Amino acid sequence: MRLPVQNGIFFCKVTAYPQLDPQSEVPLYQQLHRYFSELIRSGALKRGERLPPTRELAGLLGLNRTTVSAAYELLESEGLIAGHVGRGSYVTGAEIPGMEGLNWNALLEPGSRSSVQPVVAGSISFAVSRPSEELFPVDDFRLSCQEVMGGPDFTSVLQLGSPGGYEPLRQYLIAGAQREGVMRADDDLIITTGCQQALDLVRRVLIRPGDRVLVEEPVYPGLKNLFAEAGVELTGVPVQTDGMDPAQLERALGKAPAKAVVVTSNFQNPTGATLTAEARAAVLRLARTAGAPLIENDIYGQLRYEGEPITTIKQMDETGDTILLRSFSKISFPGLRVGWAIGPRALIARMMEAKQLSDLHSDQLSQASLLRFAMSGRLEAHHQRVLKAGAERLAAALEACQRYLPPGTDFTRPQGGMNLWIRLPEPLDAGELLARAQREGVTYLPGRYFSVNRPQPGGLRLSFAGLGPERIDRGIKILGEIFSSELERLRGAWKREPAPAMV
Ligand SMILES: Cc1ncc(COP(=O)(O)O)c(C=O)c1O
C-alpha cells in the first residue's frame, strides 16, 4: 500500500499493512519496530523517505499512538530513523545523488531485540533499579576525587593499568573478602566494569552458544538479554517468596545438563526475594551434584533494611567453586561502573584475558576515587544514609500497595534491595496498561521484560529506591486507580456477555 498523501508529500511506500498479532508475547510496538526495521534494512524504505506520522499510522492500524511512538523511538535509538519536531520521522540520511556513503543499515547485523523502555520525561518512574540521585553525597565524593588528584599516586592512576583492576582497590577488596570468609587461598578477584561486565566475562570464558544455563524466572533483563544474544539456551527456574525454588531447580537439572546456574541470593531483581539459608545450601548442593558452576550475583546484598543478613553461598561453599559477583553500583554510584568477581584462580585468570581483549582494564580514576571514598569512611557514612532512606522508601511502597492496589493483587515484601514485584489479578495485563499509566505520568516495567520461558502478563516490577516516599505514594495511588478501574470495566463487560445456549 502507499500511505496517504498529506500536504503534497508522499509518505514512505509501505508495501502492505504490517501483520501485527495482539495475542503474541512480543509487544505490539516491538512488532511494529521489527516491521519497519526490516523494510529499512532490506532497502525497501530508502534513506530520506518519511515515515507516516504517528497519529495517522495509529489510526490506520487501530493502535494506540503511544505504541507507534514507542516503535519509532526504538528505530531512532538504533539510528534507523531520525525524528524532527514538526516535520516527522525520516529514514536516516538524506540521499544526495552520486554522493551516497555506505548503507550502514544494510551492513549492520540486526540489533538485539532487547529494546530499551522509552523514558518518559517528568513522570514518576518506577522503571529503573537504581539509587536516588538526591542521596548522592556529591561534596564528599568530590573531596575524594580531589584527594586522588592531589595525591602522590595520581600519575600511576593516569598510566595504563592491569586487566585485573587498579591494584590498591583490588587489594582492599581482597582483604575485605578474606575477612568476610568469601575468598579462599586458591581464589582470585577481578575488578570489572560493573557486575554486568562480570556476567559477560563469565559467559565468554565458560559458556558456548547452545549451552543451557539455568536462571531465575522472572529474571534481571540484563542477564537474560546478554545470554540470549550470545545464543545461550536459558531455562527459567521459578522464584517463590524465598527466591529460586530448589525443588524446581532439581527438576530442571534432572531434565538436561546445564552449563551454569545463576542465582541472586539477596533481594532478587525483579522480585526482591531472598534465598533462605536452607535454600542456599540446597541450591549449592544441587548445582554441585549436577557439575554446574554456580554464579552468585550478590549485587543487592548490602541493601538490607531489616532482618538478619544470611551467609553467602560463596561462604557456604566448602570447595570454593562458587563465583561471587558484587558491585559498587547499588551502594554508591552506578555511573562509575565498578564491580568485581571472586572465584577460582583459573577462572579469574581467563576472565582477565577476556577483559584485556574487550577493554584492557576498567577506568582507574573511578576505581581510585571509590577506594579513597571507602577508605576515608565516607562510603560507610553514605551507606548508612542509603539504608535509612531505603527502609523509608520500601515502607512507603508496601503501604501504598496495600492501600491502593485492587483486591486480588499479590505483591512481594522484600526486606531490602530496590525492587518489588506485583502480580495483578486476572485478566489484567500490566503490559497493556503501561501506555495508560504513562499518559497519567507513571511508568514501570511490565512482566515481559523479565520472563524467560513463562509469560508474565499480570506481573510488573516497581523499582522504589530512586523515588522519595511522597512520590512513591502518589505513583502507586495512580497505578491503583488505573488497575482498579480497568478491572471493574473488564469484569463488568464479562458479566454483561449473554450466556450461550447450552448445547
Ligand atoms: C541483578 C543485577 N545484576 C547486575 C546488574 C548490573 O549492575 P552494574 O551496574 O554493577 O553493572 C544489575 C543492575 O541493575 C542487576 O539488577
Write a brief caption for the model:
With 503 residues, the chain is α/β, with parallel strands linked by helices.
Description:
With 503 residues, this protein is of the alpha/beta class. It folds into three domains: 5-107, Arc Repressor Mutant, subunit A; 124-134 and 380-491, Alpha-Beta Complex (Aspartate Aminotransferase, domain 1); 143-376, Aspartate Aminotransferase, domain 2. The protein is 42% helix and 14% strand. The chain has helices at 28-41, 54-61, 65-77, 104-107, 138-150, 154-158, 167-180, 194-206, 221-229, 246-255, 277-290, 313-316, 345-359, 364-375, 378-404, 430-439, 469-496; strands at residues 5-6, 9-10, 81-84, 88-91, 124-125, 187-192, 212-217, 233-240, 243-244, 260-264, 294-297, 323-327, 339-344, 410-411, 419-423, 442-443, 445-446, 459-463. The strands form five sheets. Strands 6-13-12-11-10-7-8-9 form an eight-stranded mixed β-sheet, with helices on both faces. A four-stranded antiparallel β-sheet has the order 14-15-18-17. A two-stranded antiparallel sheet has the order 1-2. Strand 7 (212-217), helix 9 and strand 8 form a beta-alpha-beta unit. Helix 5 (138-150) crosses helix 14. The longest helix is centred in the C-terminal third of the chain and has 28 residues, at 469-496. The protein starts with a strand and ends in a 7-residue tail after the last helix. The structure holds pyridoxal-5'-phosphate (PLP). Residues 129, 194-196, 220, 222, 264, 269, 297, 299, 327, 329, 334, 339 line the site of pyridoxal-5'-phosphate (PLP). The site of pyridoxal-5'-phosphate (PLP) has 14 residues, from helix 8.
